[in-house]
Amino acid sequence: MSDNTNYKLIDGKKIATEIKSEIAARIKQLEDEGKRAPHLAAVLVGEDGASKTYVASKEKASKEVGFTSSVYRYPETISEKELLEAIDFLNNDSEIDGFIIQLPLPKHINESKIIDAVSPKKDVDGFNPVNIGKMILGFSTFLPATPFGIQMLLERSGVETVGKHCVVLGRSNIVGTPIANMLSRNASNANCTVTLCHSRTPNLAEITRQADILIVAIGKPLFLKAEMVKEGATVIDVGIHRIEDSSSEKGYRIVGDVDFDNVAPKCSHITPVPGGVGPMTIVSLLSNTLKAYSENNNL
C-alpha cells in the first residue's frame, strides 16, 4: 500500500455551500426585480425516519437559498388513487415549480406509476421516463440529483474527466446507470470511457484497478478495498451505512461503500462519508428547481 498522504479530500459540504450561495444570489436578484421566489414541494407518505430526516434537510436548504418550501404529508394508508390525485393537483398548481416524491413508498403503491404521473416539467428529481430519455439523448433536462451532484463535485474539484477511464460500481436507476451515461457524453465535464460493473461482473478488481475515476454505488459497507484501486485514482463514494461500533459513544459509526482509511492513501482525490456526495444531492435538487422555475416563467 502507498504511503501517500497527499490525497485531496473532495469536500462536498464546502462545494454545496458555494453553490447554495450562488443560487441565493440569483434568488435575491429575482426578488429585487419584483418576481416571486421559486417554490419546491415534497410529498412525504408515512412515518419512515430516514425519509422524514431527508425531507427536513431539503426544507432547510430551500429556506437557506430563499426558496418557498412546502411538504405535503400523507398517512401510510393513503390509496394509490388518492396519491395520484394529489400529484395531479401539484402538476396543475402554477405556484409550484418543482416537486419530489420521497421514496420509498408503502408496498401497496406502485412507485413506477407514481413517478410516471409527475409532470416532466416539475420532475426536479429527474426520475420521470421522459427526463431519463432526454438525458440519454443528451438533451437539456433535469438530471437525477445524485449523479448531477457527482458531476458537479468532479468539475469543481478540478478532476479532469476528458479521455479518462471511469468505472462505475452499481447499476441502479438512481445513481449507477445515469452517471455512467452522463460521464460518457460529449461534454467538457464528461467525455470519459465508462465501464459499468455490477454484482455479476467477473474479475471485478481487475477492472477497478484500470479506473482513473471510480464511482462506488454498490450499497455494501466498506466494499472497495485498497487492492482494487490504482495509484492516483479519484474515488467517489456514494454509499452511506450505519455500522455497529462499541468504541463510539453512539454505538455506531457512519461509513460508505469504500474502505476509506486504506483506500485514501492511494488516491489523488477521494470523497469522505459523510460530507461528500450527500450534501450535493440536495444542492442538485435546488439547481433543478431553479431551472424549472426559469423555464416555466420563460426567464
Structural notes for this entry:
This protein has two domains: 34-119, 3-Layer(aba) Sandwich (Rossmann fold), CATH 3.40.50.10860; 144-278, NAD(P)-binding Rossmann-like Domain (Rossmann fold). A six-stranded parallel beta sheet has the order 1-11-8-7-5-6. A three-stranded parallel beta sheet has the order 3-2-4. A two-stranded antiparallel ribbon has the order 9-10. The chain is of the alpha/beta class and 299 residues long. The protein has helices spanning 12-32, 49-65, 80-92, 111-117, 129-137, 145-156, 176-184, 204-208, 260-263, 278-296, and strands spanning 8-9, 39-45, 68-74, 98-101, 165-169, 193-197, 213-216, 233-237, 241-244, 252-255, 267-270. The protein contains ten helices and eleven strands. The termini are far apart. It is 39% helix and 17% strand.
Using brief descriptors, characterize the structure shown:
299 residues; Rossmann fold; 6-stranded parallel β-sheet; 11 strands; single chain; 17% strand; 3-stranded parallel β-sheet; 2 domains
Secondary structure: elements and pairs:
Layout: E1 8-9, H1 12-32, E2 39-45, H2 49-65, E3 68-74, H3 80-92, E4 98-101, H4 111-117, H5 129-137, H6 145-156, E5 165-169, H7 176-184, E6 193-197, H8 204-208, E7 213-216, E8 233-237, E9 241-244, E10 252-255, H9 260-263, E11 267-270, H10 278-296
Parallel strand pairs: 1-11, 2-3, 2-4, 5-6, 5-7, 7-8, 8-11
Antiparallel strand pairs: 9-10
Helix pairs in contact: 1-10, 2-10, 6-7, 6-10
Largest sheet, described in full?
Answer: 6 strands, parallel
Low-confidence stretches: none
Strand and helix order: EHEHEHEHHHEHEHEEEEHEH
The largest sheet has its strands arranged as 1-11-8-7-5-6
Question: Roughly what is the average pLDDT, rounded to an integer?
Answer: 95
Rg value? 20 Å
Q: What number of structural domains do the residues give?
A: 2
Write down the oligomeric state: single chain
CATH homology superfamily of the largest domain: NAD(P)-binding Rossmann-like Domain
CATH fold-level name of the largest domain: Rossmann fold
Approximate helicity band: 25-40%
What is the highest CATH level, the class of the largest domain? Alpha Beta
Structural class: alpha/beta
Which percent band covers the strand fraction?
Answer: 15-25%
In the CATH hierarchy, what is the architecture of the largest domain at level 2?
A: 3-Layer(aba) Sandwich
Q: Termini distance?
A: 53 Å
Number of strands: 11
Number of helices: 10
* Shape field: globular
